[in-house]
Known about the structure:
This protein has about 675 residues and is of the alpha/beta class. The relative contact order is 0.14.
Amino acid sequence: LNRIREEHGPRAIGLAGIGGQGNHSNAFGAAPFLYSLGATRFFNALGQEKIQHILVDKRLFRGTHDTYLAADEHHADYVLILGSNPFLSHRGMNATESLKCLSGNPERTLVVVDPRITETSRRAKRHLRIKPAKDVYLLLALAGVIVQENLADQAFLRAKTRDHDKMLRLLARVDRQEMARRCELDVTDIEAVAREFAAAKTACINWDLGVEHAPNSTLNSYLIRVLLLLTGNLGRPGGNLFVQTFGPRIPTLGKMPRATVSGLEAVPMFMPLGGFSPNLIPEEILTDHPDRMRALIVDAANPMRSYVDTSRFREAFAQLDLLVVIEPAMTETARVADYVLPTPVGYEKWEISIFPKDVIAAQARPPLVNGPAEALPEVEIYYRLARAMGLVGPAPKMLHTLAKNARHPLVTPAYMGAVSSLAATRGGGLFATLGRSAFWFYETLGPTLPNPMLASVWLFSVGYALTRRHQLDRALPEARKLRNPFAAAELVFEKILAHPEGVIVGELDKEKNFEEFCHYRDGKARIFQADFARDIESLLRQDEAEDAEFPFILNGGLRTGWSANTIIRDPSWRKGRGPHYPLHISPEDAEKLGVENGTLVRIESRRGAVQVPAKVDANTRPGNLHLPNIFDLQYPDPVTGELKSTGIGINELSDVSDRDPYTGVPNLKRIRCRVSVVATDAAPA
C-alpha cells in the first residue's frame, strides 16, 4: 500500500464494503483509515440501492448523511406500497403486525404496486400489477392527476416549498392516458389512487428495491417526494417522516470528490466523506487514466457475488496491484485476494448497530462466544495498518494519562481538546487530523473500556449530547437535570453499555419533523430541480424501446423466506425440499416455451448465461421473470469437503453499465434476457 501511495498517490487506493452482518463497528476503523490516508474512493452497498435518496434529500431539504425518509404506516389512513413485500422482507418497523392492522381496518386503505402477486398485495384494497421497470411513469401519472384536478395542498406548498409553480406547470403537461398505456394499467385505477391519496387525511408511501433497482431510480426517489409534498404528507405524522441514526450532527462537505471515469459526484452516506456506487469499481480500475485505482480493500462485502456484473469484476480484479479482503469467511472474493485478514463474526466481538428508526436508538452488543485467536476486530486491523504504514504515530503520553479519567464530565473537555489539538499539530490538514484523533481515542481511551471499539461509541455519545440535546432530553427525563453536557454524554454512554438489547436515547419531534429536518434557512424544500425536470420532459416525450432479441424482463433478486444475501453461507439452514432458487415464470410463458415445474432452462442476457430449474408461478406476470437472491456461494460438502454451488449467479447476467445516470445504482429489476429449454442430454449432473 505504501509503494502504491508513494508512486501514484492515495487516490489509487479504494475501499469497498462496511456494514456487513448488520454491524457498523468496522466504520469506526475504516473511516479514520481513509481520512488518514487521504483516499477518496469509498464504495458501499448503500450505493447499490439507497444512495439516490440521500442525493435527492440533500438537494430538496439540504439533508444530511444520517437521515432517511420513512413511511409512518402505523398512523397513516392511506398507505401506498411501491416495489416492496413487507410481509416477507419485514421492511419497516414491526412491518408484519402493522400491515395486518392496516389491512384489517375498513377505515384505512392499503394499495400495492407490484408486477407480481405477493403476500402483501393479497391483503391490499387495490393491487396495480404494473409493467416491470415502468414505475417512473406511474409516479408521473399520479402526480399529474393531482395537479390537473387541483387536488394539491396549496397551503402546504406555499408554506413549505419554493418554486412549486414551476413543478405544477411541468406536471400539468403529463398525459395520464399515455402514462397508463406505458405501465399497462387502466387509467381509471391510476386516477382512483391519485384522488384517494390526495383526499386522505394522512397518507404515506412505503418503497423498497422494486423502485430502487428500477430504471430512473433517482427520478423515482424524486417523484415520491414530489407526491408527498403535493399532498402535504411529508414531515408529518401519518405521512412520511424523517428518521435519524444515533450520533453527532456532522456537517456535510460542500464539495464531494468525483469518480475518474464517469465524473459522478460522491454522495455523503454514513460519514461526511462521500461514497460511490460499487458499480463504478470496475471502470475505476480498468481505465488507462493515470489516477486509476490500483489497490482495493474489501471489508464485509463479497463483490464477486453480490455486486453487479461478475464477469466485469473478474476482469477488473485481475488488473489490481493489490486486493485485500477483511472477512470472517473464505468468500468468493477472498479466494482471488492477495491477502485475507480474518475478523471475528458478529457473535464473537463487540458490535454496534445504529439503524435509523422513528426513535434514536443504539445497540452495543458484547460477544457471546470466543472467536479464533488469529481473528482481529476490524477497528484493530485498521489501527495496526495505519500504524504500520506510518499514517498515525503513537499517541503522546499525556493523552494516556488524561484518558484514565476522561469519562469524568469535568475532565472530558480537557481530554478531547488535548487529542484534537495535538493531532492537528502533526499536520496533514483536516482529514488527517480527524483520522489521527480517532485512532488516538482508540489507543488511549479504548483500554479503559470493556473493549477498545467502545471508544468510538463514547465519542458518538459525547457528540450526540453536544449537538442534539433536545432529542436526548425528550427521551431521558433524567438528562434534563444535567446542566453539564458532558455529564449528559456519560449518561447516554452508560445507558448503551447497560442495555445490550438496545436502548432509546432520543426522540424526534414528529409534529415539527419537517421544520427540524429541512435545513435551508428559509425552511422551504426545493421541490423544482431543473435537471430532474429536463429528464422528466424527455421521458414524457418518448418511452424506452423494447428489445426483441431479449424479450423478458428479469427481476434479479426475489425476496424469499430463505434469502440472506451472502451472510449465511451454509445452505443447510434452508428448510424444505427445494430447489430454493428456481426461475419463476408465468403459466402463459411456460406454455409457450414448453416449460414445466423442474424443467432446466437457460437464461441468457447480453452479459452471460445461467441454467436453473423452472417453477411455473401463477403469481408472476407474463413477460416477467424472477430469480431469488440466493447467490452462488461455494460451500464445502459436509461429507466430501468438496466446494459445491449453493445458489445461482444472478450477477453473471447483470450489466454494470445498465445503471442510473445520477448515481450509478444498477437496474437489477430490469435485466433483459431470453429463456430456452436445456436439452436433457445436455444438462449438467
